[in-house]
Write a structure and sequence with these properties.
Elements (H helix, E strand, L loop, with lengths): L7 E9 L2 E9 L3 H7 L3 E6 L9 E2 L7 E8 L2 E8 L2 E8 L4 E9 L7 E8 L2 E7 L7 E6 L2
Antiparallel strand pairs: 1-2, 2-3, 3-4, 5-6, 6-7, 7-8, 9-10, 10-11
Amino acid sequence: MRGANTSANEIMPTLWKGRIAFVRGSSGGRVDEVRERERGVVYARRLTAPRSRPSKRLAQISKGRVVELELHRDRLAQIVRRARRGEVRLIDISERSTRRLFAVGIGQLGAQYLAGIGFADGRLMWALDCEGCIRPGIYRYRLS
């Protein structure tokens, strides 16, 4: 990719019509180690952008680690893990704004987790699964 000029680990890429978003960790280390111990920072860029134009740093989630990304048009969906909480967030890339759409306590007791984020038919969807929880299933958010 044009403009890839860092020794940092860049993981979890997601593509949509000539744009890429990814998580950049610090330099060095194996990719699986980066996922487990680092938060990383989310960046986006056009694939055709010149090397001289840096990737755009997106809204940062303090004390959280991005687990999954999905890009669609000017929106980037994230599943973020923060201590004992899982969140689904939506970033508007052009406005550089973020909002939390869903939050759930996660952890050892009920083994809750969020997964499978994706855009389809004007909606953002994700799955919540857990042992014995009240509302497991597929969740949808209508994009407006």
